[in-house]
Amino acid sequence: MSSLVPQLALAAAAVVCTRWLWTLISVRRILDNIPGPPSPSFWIAVPKPWLAGNFGQIYSVDGWAFHQQLAEKYGGVVRVDGLFGEKQLYAFDPKALHHVLLKDQDSFEAPIEFTRMQSVIFGEALVSSTGAQHRKQRKMFNPVFSAAHLRNMVPIFFGVGKKLRAAIEAKVKNGPKEVWMSRTALELVGQAGLGHSFDTLVEDAVPAYITSAQNMQITIFRMALPSRYILPWAVKIGGPKFRRFIVNITPWKDLHTARDIIDDLHQSAVNIYTAKKKALEAGDEAVAAQIAQGKDIISILMKDNSDASTKDRLSEAEILGQVYILSTAFRSRDPSLLVFASTDTTSAALARTLYLLAHNPDVQEKLRREINETQGDREDQDLTYDELTSKLPYLDAVCRESLRLHPPISFVSRTAQKDVVLPLSTPIVTVSGSTVSEVVVPAGINVLVSILASNRNEAVWGPDCLEFKPERWLSPLPQTVVDAPIPGVYSNLMTFIGGPRSCIGFKFSQLEMKVILSLLVGRFKFSLSDKDSEISWKMSSIAVPNVGSDSTPQLPMKVELV
C-alpha cells in the first residue's frame, strides 16, 4: 500500500494541474475578447521578479499614467493580465459597479488573500470578516456613527485641531514649516475613536508608535502581491506557534518588519482595550474621567454591545479587533475599515486638499472668507455641528471636489463567487469588433473596482472631469451624474465605495476633515514651497506625497498668518 502513495500523490497533483489549466484556458476564452492593454511580457522582472502581465503597472507607485490610460482608451470594463496569464477585470462603468457592489453583492466578496491578510494583522475585525459575521459586526457599529454621537465628537475634534493650530502658529515666524497631518489624524482617531491620546502634537520628535504605524502601510503594500499567492495556504499550516516559527526563520526582511510592527501595535491595542474595559466596569465616574468622557467610538460600542442580545453581541476578540484597527495608522487598500478617517487616509485627504488650495489661491481665499464670516467674532467659540454640516457650502464643496478628483485609495478588489453577467451603462467594442452591452465574469475572477476612474469618468462628469472645480457642487449636478447608477455611499462618488463593505465611518471622516480645514485655513495662508517641482504623489496603499527620491511621506508648504 505504501508504494502506492507516491503514485496517488502524483495523480492528485496531475488532476489539480489539469483543472487549473482547464480553468485558465476557459477563462481566457471568455475574457480575451474584452479589450485591454498588452502585457509587457508573460514574465517580467520589474518591479519584482514574481510579477507578470500588467500587475507591475497597476500596482506601481508611479502608476497614475497607466490607470489614466486604462480609463481613456478601453472603455468601462478592461481586461488586464496577471501572473501565469491569469485574467482580471478593471472596471469603472457605473452599471457594472452597481451590480458588483449592490445588486449582485452576494456574488462578489473581498479577495480571500485580502481578508486573510487583515485577519493576520487585525484578528476578528470588521475588515477581515465576511458573510454573516461581517453583517453582524456592521449592525452593531451602525448606531455608533449616528448624528447624535457625531455631534458629541465635534468638541474632541476641535480640541485636537487647536493643538495643531497652536503648534504651527508658534513656529510660523521662523519660516515655512511642514504641517504634521499624519500625527494630527492619528490623534483625532485616538481621542474620538478610542478615548486615548497618542501624541501631544507639541514636540518636534515624532512618537515611536506613529513611526511604526506609518511604516506598516509601506511594508504591507510591498508584500501585497506575493502575499496574494502565499497567504491562502500559509495560514492553514500548523498552529499559531508553528506559523510564528516559520515567519522567524523565513529570510524575508519585509515579513520580519511586519511581524515586529504588528507585535508593537497589537500590544498597544490590548493595553487600550484593557484600560477601557476596566473604566466601564468601574462605572460612570471612571468613564467620565477618561479622555472623551465615554463619548468615543469604542466606549459607545462596548456599552451598546453589553446591552445587546446574545445573538447580536460581539465577542471580546471582535471588539479588540476594532480597537486594533482604530489604533493603527496603517490603512489597507480598501475603505471598508472601521473608520475611513483612520489616520493615513485622512492625512492624505487633508494634505491633498491643502495642496490643491495652495495651487488655487482664489479657491483658498474664497474658502477662508466663508469660514471667517461664519465664525464671526466668536473667537472663543467653536463652529457647531450644524454649521459644519449645513452652513458652510463652499467648505463642503471643496471637500467633495478634493475627494472626487484625488481619492486617497485608487481601487479595491472583489472576487466573483460564481459566474455573473455584468450589464454596462456604455457598450464596449470587443477585440473581435462586435459591440456588447454586458460582460460575463467567470467565478474566481478578480474585479478591480477603480475608484479613481469612476470619479473621473468623462461620460459621467463631463469634459472638465480632470479639473479641480469646487463650484460644480454649488449648483445642480449634470443629469449624466444624477442618472448614473454609481453605487457609492457619498455624493455620487466611489471614494468611500458602496454596498456591504462600504466605509461605515464616512460621516466621521467628513466631519474630521471639515474641522481641521476650518481651523487651519481660517488662520493660515498656504502656498507652494520652493520644492514644489520635486513633489510627486505615490500610488501606494494610500496616495502620499514624496519629495524627490526621498520615500518618506512629506509635503513641504509655506505657511503664514493671515
Keywords:
562 residues; alpha+beta; 5-stranded mixed sheet; 11% strand; 22 helices
Task: Give a concise summary.
This protein has 562 residues and is α+β, with helices and mostly antiparallel strands. It is built from 22 helices and eleven strands. It has a five-stranded mixed beta sheet with strand order 1-2-7-4-3. A two-stranded antiparallel sheet has the order 5-6. A two-stranded antiparallel ribbon has the order 8-11.
Write a structural description.
This protein has 22 helices and eleven strands. By secondary structure, the protein is of the alpha+beta class. It has a five-stranded mixed β-sheet with strand order 1-2-7-4-3. It has a two-stranded antiparallel ribbon with strand order 5-6. The protein has a two-stranded antiparallel ribbon with strand order 8-11. A hairpin with a 5-residue loop joins β1 (77-81) and β2 (87-91). The protein starts with a helix and ends with a strand.
